[in-house]
Write a structure and sequence with these properties.
9 helices
């Protein structure tokens, strides 16, 4: 079904409230059943809106799921921008070798039901790709922050976002680790996951003099 126009300006408070309600409703429903089993009718009924109202804002449940993830990821990356790969002092591992990375895992643990459904075998390819791109952009931005050349994380969805192999590699690795951890029921704490993952990220760190981006042959 083609999404209708809401007839209201994009920034209208009523639009934002309705979208937030639908997103919260989906998050609640995912705690009860797999994403693949949730229908537009389920969301509309739980949110106490009509199906036509749902389609005013989203084309289908997967688009709603992507929007819900986007909102949560924006909140997370608002304070967890740099997934640091700099070496940590050995003493740091007794506490937290990388608070940003711990925040990354804590975010997924807090919304384990949603991400387990979205990133699992019956999840959404669109959402998986979106999470990967957001993580890639966050790592890229964090590495360039000291130079002042820090693109907004949402530019990862732009066709002119630069190819950055280290950032893409780290994002893919972290997403794979997080997805496996979620599917196993989060058997370790976010801090324990950071302690296990941090040395691997350090090993992936580009060597001195390595260009931050590589856009291929001209």
């Amino acid at each position: 079904m083609t999404r209708k126009s809401s007839g209201a300006p994009p920034g209208d408070r009523r639009v934002r409230r309705t979208q937030a309600t639908l997103q919260r409703t989906l998050i609640d429903l995912v705690q009860e059943q797999d994403l693949s089993q949730i229908t537009v009718a389920d969301v509309a009924e739980r949110a106490d809106v009509s199906r036509s109202t749902f389609y005013d804002h989203y084309q289908d449940v997967h688009e709603l799921a992507e929007a819900a993830c986007t909102s949560m990821l924006d909140d997370m990356f608002g304070f967890v921008l740099a997934l640091d790969t700099a070496p940590a002092h050995p003493a740091d591992f007794q506490e937290d070798p990388d608070p940003a990375l711990t925040g990354f895992f804590a975010h997924f643990a807090e919304h384990a039901g949603l991400y387990r459904s979205l990133l699992g075998p019956t999840g959404s390819a669109r959402v998986i790709e979106h999470v990967r791109r957001r993580t890639t952009a966050a790592h890229y931005s964090g590495r360039l922050a000291p130079t002042g050349d820090t693109p907004p994380s949402q530019t990862a969805d732009s066709p002119d976002f630069p190819l950055d192999v280290p950032a893409a590699f780290v994002a893919g690795a972290l997403l794979g680790v997080a997805a496996d951890w979620l599917q196993r029921g989060c058997p370790r704490t976010p801090l324990e996951m950071t302690i296990l993952t941090k040395p691997l990220l350090i090993a992936l760190r580009p060597g001195p003099g390595t260009p931050p981006t590589s856009q291929g042959s001209e």
